[in-house]
Amino acid sequence: MALKKIHYIITIIMLVLVSSAAKAQDVLAKMAPVDKRMRTLDTLALRSAREREEEMTPAAALYEDWNNTFAHKATELPDSFRINLKHFCMPTESRVVTSNFGARWGRAHKGIDLKVYVGDTIRAAFSGKVRMVKYEAAGYGKYVVIRHNNGLETIYGHMSAWLVEEDQVVKAGQPIGLGGNTGRSTGSHLHFETRLCGVAMNPAILFDFRNQDVVADYYMFHKDTFEKESALANELRGKIGNGGYVASDVRGETIPGGGTVREKPARESKAQKSKGSEIRYHKVSAGETLYSISRRRGISVDELCKLNHLTRDVKVRVGQLLRYS
Predict the structure, then answer these.
(1) Among 126, 274, 96, 101, which residue's Cα sits nearest to residue 188?
(2) DSSP letter at 275?
(3) 3-state DSSP assignment of residue 247
(4) Shortest CA distance to 83 belongs to which of 189, 215, 181, 190?
(5) What backbone torsions phi and psi does residue 185 show, to the nearest 5 degrees?
(6) R_g (Cα) of the chain, nearest Å
(7) Rounded to whole angstroms, what are the CA distances from 234 to 73, 194, 208, 231?
(8) The pLDDT of residue 316
């Protein structure tokens, strides 16, 4: 009798264990999708955290500090560094290079000069954070420095107006200023620099302004060779001819000189495809009215009001930006 009772108890225990195991498997099966969703959420949270950190301090691994004092300060360059050129926007639609990177008038010219007109929209080349918005009478004039997530810093000089503030996060293609002729400048143009760790690189190594494109999706920087690449880049993508060249810029105007630019369909960036035709702005000065601005910009008052959602009797403010194209 005792033996039967023991056997009965063992049977009951085995049934309980089997039942528990089955339930445990069911629970695990039900939890699997939850775990997968949690892992996905964790991944998204980490990615979001990384993006927020990158917005606060772009390319922190390359730069020791963040300051609004120096436009550029050379630090130790990496032996090699891969620069992501995707998600770019050309800083201007102008295809006309008026001065190359390199020696000029007995001194080093650390950027490329591009023909723009006063009021033309200047855009951020890549996403990043504005480090400096300053005026330098004997140099850059009104300029902006942006540190980008890909490690580069870009400088935009001689502008007539700023459209951003220091420490502002910007996206590729976002308007940051208007073309001008401020500072040490002999005519309206954009002085455009690309720097890595404060060291100037020829923008023509990365950008092809005549074709409104970057040279590749990535550029592999090598400390020992990037200076040698500069001269070749000038030959391939810099100013053509001695003293000028024939080229059609974005307005279809002709610049006289001795050379030609081969026309090639440009690959537009996403930012450029989305913005359509070039938008230009006028910064209101003291004493100006809608009527005087319309005459200066060759546009009717009604069209000016329509573009800016204004009425004809509105009084414009000094410093106000009005779209006129």
Answers:
(1) 96
(2) H
(3) coil
(4) 215
(5) -150, 140
(6) 29
(7) 24, 14, 10, 5
(8) 85
Report whether 172 contacts 124 (CB < 8 A): yes
Query: What's the average model confidence in pLDDT over 79-88?
Result: 95
The sheet with strand 161-162 has its strands ordered as 121-123, 175-178, 161-162
- Cβ count within 10 A of residue 287: 7
81: exposed, middle or buried (Cβ count in 10 Å: 0-12, 13-18, 19+): buried
At residue 67's C-alpha, the angle toward residues 65 and 68, to 5°, is 165
Euclidean distance between CA atoms 215 and 90, whole angstroms? 12
Q: Residue 267: what are its φ and ψ, rounded to 5°?
A: -85, 115
- Rounded to the nearest 10 degrees, what angle do helices 301-308 and 290-297 cross at? 100
Q: How many CA atoms lie within 13 A of 120 on its CB side?
A: 23
Query: What percent of the chain clears pLDDT 90, i.e. is strictly above it?
Result: 46
Number of H helices, E strands in the chain: 5, 19
CA distance 209 to 220: 20
pTM of the predicted protein model: 0.65
Give yes or no for residue 198 having a pLDDT over 90. Answer: yes
Tokens of 222: 């090598």
Q: Which amino acid is at 306?
A: K
* Rounded Cα distance, 25 and 128, in Å: 49
- List, as one string, the DSSP characters of 145-177: EEEETTSEEEEEEEESEE---TT-EE-TT-EEE
Q: Kindly state the average pLDDT of the residues 120-141.
A: 96
